[in-house]
Amino acid sequence: MAKENENTSVTEKDLRFIKKELLKEQTAPPLHELATKLAYEKNASQLNQAVKKYNPDCTYEPGDLICEDYDEQLTVSSKGTEAFRGKVVLKVINKKSYESYDCEMLEVDYTGGGVFRKYIDYMKKTNTQVLLPCSQGGNAQTPETLKKEEDPRLHELPMTKKDLKSLEKNLKKALSKSDDFFHWNDKWQLTEKQIKIPETKIKQIEKSLKKAKQSAATTDLVSEFMGISPSQADFNLYCLSLNHFLEKKYKKSFIFVYPAGWGKWILRKTLQSFIQEIPLSAPQAKLPEFDSEAKPDLLKQQEFPLKIYLTWREILSGGLKIPANLSKSLSSSREYIFTDSEHGKQYQVYLYPKSGLFIGLQEFYKQHNVTQGASLTLTQKDNINFDFGLKEAKKAMSAPMIKYDFKKDIFTSTKEISTSALPNKIIYLRNDTLNKLFSLYDQRNKLDLRELLIIIFKTFGLKGETLSLHVQRAYHLVDILKHTTLENIKKTLLLSPEFAVSVKKEDIFFYQEKIKKPEEIDHEEPVKVPRAVKTEPSTKEIEEELPEIGTVGEVETPTVVLKEKPPEKTAEKEKPPLKLKKEKKPEEKTKEELPPEPKKEKKLKKKRHKPTPEEDKGPRQKKGKKRIIEEQIELEESEREALFAIKADEKQEIEEIKTIKEPKKKEEYVSQEQTEHALSGIFGAKLKSALGQKGEKKQETPKKPTKAKTTKGTKKLEKKSTSTKTKAKKI
After folding, report:
1. Count of beta carbons in the 10 Å neighbourhood of residue 404
2. What residues are paired with 719 via a beta bridge?
3. How far apart, in whole angstroms, are the C-alpha atoms of residue 461 and residue 510?
4. Res. 511: pLDDT tops 50
């Protein structure tokens, strides 16, 4: 089977056909156009050959064209088949005899397109021959000839797109090897039509471009130095010949920068002069050595429209820095047209693909007093045109202006300027920040990018749990010290162990001290760590944990020492009033109610040693510190309540003596509920328990209830109340 389709190969016969076509042309047709003409010619030559109808009983020879009718499922891939129904013209490329089958086999090929071409290509891919039997049973009949109007190739394309590309590739190789043709870029013509341009004309062109310091179109050079106008027939041949000479013989002096039409040319020295002694041409900071296994997964490929925050290096150089992936895709041209989207003015800008720089916006930056941190959006319209826009504020603002010394690679402040360009607040570098940066120039020597970033984070990082900075601000700060790119900054931050990216906030990085490797720790002396000593919580911590206490007040110290104190005069002022309040209607009672004796209080009958105030009752070890303090406070408060109650009882005894001497009146009893109300609560219960033994002794010799003292002229109380009197034992 043929390794390559015959329709895609280029022979001497095909080159002769191309010569005939170029002789008719006054211009230089592109290669694709020549390949298409050749494809139709190949198909036309096949159409002139007679096509025989296929019959298994007839005999055929290699080179014959046979027409076969198919109606079946054809295998076009390893997983699929497609139905095909129709006639195809096949070419016999080989013939073999099979005695066991009593016939001959024809190996055929197909040069057309469509489903049947997919089937043939898959058969070739799997090294499977497409065979048709003939001369069955020893018959050798003569086949019939197909009529021209019945040829199915009249209604098909000459070849598939894939074959056309293959033919174009083979044609380019054949034309390049032949001396009969010359070309520039993708345009071809015969060598005999080439116009020889004298060297004196080339020198005149070089002198003119050197003086202008910008590019010039080929059409303008031909009109100015050759004296040929575009209306003349051989104008295109002059343009083709000039471009061919500049590209082949004068490549060291001239460089092609603009692909549209016949293109533009500029001197190499002029193009290189645009990036000499500018901040963007300074040597970049050295990248540190990273771990080969680490991969920067967060490095995203950027696309247009591209948002750029301008650095001082870009502004003072009149340029823009773009990512490496975008500069590679734009390398087909070196000159671009930038249009200001707001004012409509155009700027001629040159691209430096290796450095990823656009240079040519000096006039725009000066006119608008663009400052560092300003936002510029770049949008690609087509292969050579871009739109750009600068974000501006409604009111002008004052901003610092700096200058650059290329020999020392340092920036210095000059003056304040008024600008309408709106800088980003996070990225913008103020005067105090710039002055602090300028003071770090002495520390930057022999430092790689990682070490420079550490200095920047330590000096300008936002203080919190760790030092943090936005990646854009870190880039603008480092770029003042040493020339670098945003891509290198991101790569260094992601691959250095001292830096960590924030999960919550995008493009925020944290600085942390480098963790020592195991091999570094082994060489160091072991450090003895002292045992941890349990420390008591501070007073402030205890106070925060304490609950609010009723009338006792705040606790100044966590520990309380009980000491016997003589009753103070201030305590008399704080005596609770003993006047009886009628909150509830008292019930009539004939007998004196004794104080209740709950079962729980029987335990108090057992005589136990009660600690005096001098004895500091230590807290239990199992209880918490908070509970210990509460118990100590309760003891102190109960003692105060007991003192108040003793004073009250003494006063009450004096009043009882007075009432006995008065004449007898209708008896009134004080309600026990009212007395209990005054001694209610936790501290009242404590007082009752403390004075329980005193009350029990009184119960043995009860006294008659005393009459309540009443004033003259008042009505007698309809309801009587009783009260139990308990005397507190003097402490």
Report:
1. 18
2. none
3. 9
4. yes
